[in-house]
């Protein structure tokens, strides 16, 4: 079993238990993609679901042997909810592990929003950061897209990933599902426009700055990579255009 398979298995199990999950379309050619790199097979598999309050729940799982393991797991709410995004980037490269967990806010500078969606998870953040040392600097331009409960760490020990990081992942996901269970739809037109603008701003940033772009291009080529990023990983603009918005 690969390093991040238990994370994916747990997430899909809990989502299935707590939500009425429906399948979400994965464009042809993206369900699974393999390449051979330096004699090692690199396999990328995609998983996608949705629910009444969540527009897209999706995972990209890259399995390339001990030196390359990646799980990018993101949840995007429907546009008539002001829920934050759930984001987990779990990366193992030859140089070590890079772990990022957060509930990324739509409105980081709104005190009411932070009181509803960040304050309740700060105790979870504090409990785990005792065991997971801060990972150091990350790009200044990325800061507006992360909450004060952003868990960013670079553990050197794989056992820490299997235990401490897994526990943090489980707790963050459970807290997020609690938010989803309590979410009420937004009806005010100004707020709906603000939610859409915030989601699009986040998706455009993530698509433009996707750190996996270089890796995917080396493995699968530029054309496949750009279509994967814009047509599946961050597909809101494409879907809204197709629907005539």
From TrEMBL:
Catalyzes the two-electron reduction of the C2 and C3(1) diene system of 15,16-dihydrobiliverdin. It comes from the Bacteria. This is Phycoerythrobilin:ferredoxin oxidoreductase. Transmembrane segments: none annotated. GO terms for molecular function: cobalt ion binding; phycoerythrobilin:ferredoxin oxidoreductase activity. GO terms for biological process: phytochromobilin biosynthetic process. It comes from Gloeobacter kilaueensis (strain ATCC BAA-2537 / CCAP 1431/1 / ULC 316 / JS1). Keywords: Oxidoreductase. Its EC number is 1.3.7.3. The keyword Hydrolase does not apply. It catalyses: (3Z)-phycoerythrobilin + oxidized 2[4Fe-4S]-[ferredoxin] = 15,16-dihydrobiliverdin + reduced 2[4Fe-4S]-[ferredoxin] + 2 H(+). HAMAP family: PebB (MF_00793). Belongs to the HY2 family.
